[in-house]
Structures are given as structure tokens and as C-alpha cells.
Write a structure and sequence with these properties.
The chain is α+β, with helices and mostly antiparallel strands. The protein is 32% helix and 24% strand. A hairpin with a 7-residue loop joins β12 and β13.
Length: 225
Amino acid sequence: MVSTPQQQLVIPPLENGDRLSRSEFERRYQAMPQLRKAELIEGVVYNMSSPLRIKSHGEPHGNLTGWLWTYKTATPGLVMGIEPTVRLDPDNEPQPDAVLFVPGQQARIGEDDYIEGAPELVIEIAASSAAIDLHDKKRAYRRNGVKEYIVWRTLETQLDWFVLTADEYVPLGTDQQGVFHSQVFPGLWLDGAALLAGDMAQVLAVLQQGLGTDEHRSFAEQLLN
């Protein structure tokens, strides 16, 4: 069968379940400017452009963004992104809800302005434990060396913070006050119960305590040198 030049220029749309290389995924994605979000996870396309509910995604996303942005503004040299495309490996190109990284350490910003490599911290907001975020994505992030991975299961009112230890993700424990302390970013403290309750004043107050530690001060100075 012979194709006409017009037929040869047609680029197929992205569909859920397509199995594509990363280059073909990008080719099709770029040809669909109306598509808000799609991801390539373990070589499979996930079209995430469905409407997002405010209480189960939009508001939690905003609250986590505020917490992370506050830390970033107090820590010069870091890059924070919201839903950026991340070129992890040939089979994985996710768009995490948020990332935080030291440019040039594990991940870098490529010439075409995409993140290449594994950010130190990745955050995803998931509806439940059945979501891809706790299965295929988690496996891809672990294999590529994402050091810390936070998943907020909004419908289950559960926050999971994983730390990469000996090539496996293990849950990060809290201190006696129920506060998480990042192992990668000194001073990045999170009152998980306050976050789940929507008490952002308490969340930011605890973060300010972390930002006032000697560990954070030394880390910030190290980034500037």
C-alpha cells in the first residue's frame, strides 16, 4: 500500500495504554497542544487529562506547593517545579505534581528546558493506594534513584514519605511530635497530621523551625559555594 504525502504527515494521537518509546511519546505529545498532561511510565502511556476535583487534588496540590515553595525560597540554589516533564530514562517520562532538586547533582535542565535525570525529591497526589503512583511510578522512581518520594493519598487521608535506602524505598518515620524530617534536604520538616487536616499555619510554623536549624543553615551555605 502506498501512502500519500498528506497521509505520511499524520501523527497518531496519544491513547491510554499505548506502548511507545520516549521519542515517539514526545513526538505525539507535542502534536497535541490541547492535551494538559500525559505520562510515559514503564513504556506505557497514561493520559491524565481528565478534570481534577478541588478537594481531592487541587487544594492538596496547592497546599503542598506552598510548603515546598517556602522551603525553596529560603534555600538558594534549588530548583522547584510543578508538573514538569521529567526525562527519567528511555521508558519513563512522568509529570510529577512537584519536584525539588539541586541542578547538576542528579538531575539537570537540558538545552530544550526539560528536566533530565532523577530529581532528589518527587511528590505525587494520588486518590488511593490503587493509583499508579504507588506501583509503576514508584518502581520507576526507585530504579532511577529518586532519593525521596512523597505520595499523598487524599481519599484515604494518608501521607507516605519514602526514602531510598540500599536500592529500596523504606517509609520515613517521624519524630515524637509526628514531624517528618527530610534526609536529603536539611530543614525540610513536615507536620503530616497538620497537612492532612488542612492546618497550613501549623505546617508552615513547623517548617520555619526546620529552617532555623544549624543543619539548614550549613546546607544553604554549601549550595552557595
